[in-house]
């Protein structure tokens, strides 16, 4: 963005846009029923962050059990939800920060720090869930942690990467605002 002469006014919305994509991925992870699924036929197990559903055979009806009855289920949901709420707050703050004509670079660095805190909470929830789920819930057949769980990890990785970008952006304040004179490389004959 800085080195190759891209105009700041055209590129200023890239980071808030990426945060918005992270929020969408977080919503998919929170609402998705694919945290854990049966890998092979018959598909007899499916779980989300909130409940675990099983059925006796291919044609049977699903019976669901809430994971909020377990302390680890509440802990996993709470920590992931706190990380998601911090991500939403960072998204709102980034829109405010980049909408102002003059950027407050310390404010942007604070958003980066808050993104790291959000990543810590998200990763705690993403680690608690599979460890305790596989040890305390009876699973039949071959199961895999599936697409919604992957969206949760994608959200956590985006929080870490965007945290670095938001923290490092103030180091290039002069280049972004155009306060540095261009250097021309010219050699005389």
TrEMBL record:
GO biological process: apoptotic process; cell-cell adhesion
The family this protein is said to belong to: Belongs to the TMEM47 family.
Bilayer topology annotation: Multi-pass membrane protein
Lineage: superkingdom: Eukaryota
Keyword Transmembrane helix: yes
The protein, known as: p53 apoptosis effector related to PMP-22
Source organism (scientific name): Thinocorus orbignyianus
Localisation per UniProt entry: Cell junction, Desmosome; Cell membrane; Cytoplasm
InterPro entries: P53_induced, PMP22/EMP/MP20/Claudin
Keywords assigned: Apoptosis, Cell adhesion, Cell junction, Cell membrane, Cytoplasm, Membrane, Transmembrane, Transmembrane helix
Record-annotated membrane-spanning stretches: 12-32, 77-100, 107-131, 151-172
GO cellular component: cytoplasm; desmosome; plasma membrane
């Amino acid at each position: 963005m800085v080195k190759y002469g891209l105009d700041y006014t055209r590129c200023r919305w890239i980071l808030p846009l990426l945060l918005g994509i992270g929020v969408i991925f977080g919503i998919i992870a929170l609402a998705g029923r694919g945290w854990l699924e049966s890998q092979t036929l018959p598909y007899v197990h499916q779980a989300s962050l909130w409940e675990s559903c099983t059925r006796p055979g291919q044609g049977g009806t699903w019976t669901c059990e809430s994971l909020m009855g377990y302390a680890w289920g509440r802990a996993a949901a709470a920590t992931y939800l706190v990380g998601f709420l911090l991500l939403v707050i960072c998204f709102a703050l980034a829109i405010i920060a980049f909408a102002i004509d003059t950027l407050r670079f310390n404010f942007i660095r604070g958003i980066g720090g808050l993104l790291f805190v959000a990543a810590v909470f998200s990763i705690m929830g993403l680690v608690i869930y599979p460890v305790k789920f596989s040890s305390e819930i009876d699973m039949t057949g071959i199961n895999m942690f599936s697409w919604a769980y992957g969206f949760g990890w994608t959200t956590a990785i985006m929080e870490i990467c965007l945290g670095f970008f938001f923290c490092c952006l103030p180091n290039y304040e002069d280049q972004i605002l155009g306060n540095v004179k261009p250097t021309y490389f010219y050699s005389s004959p």
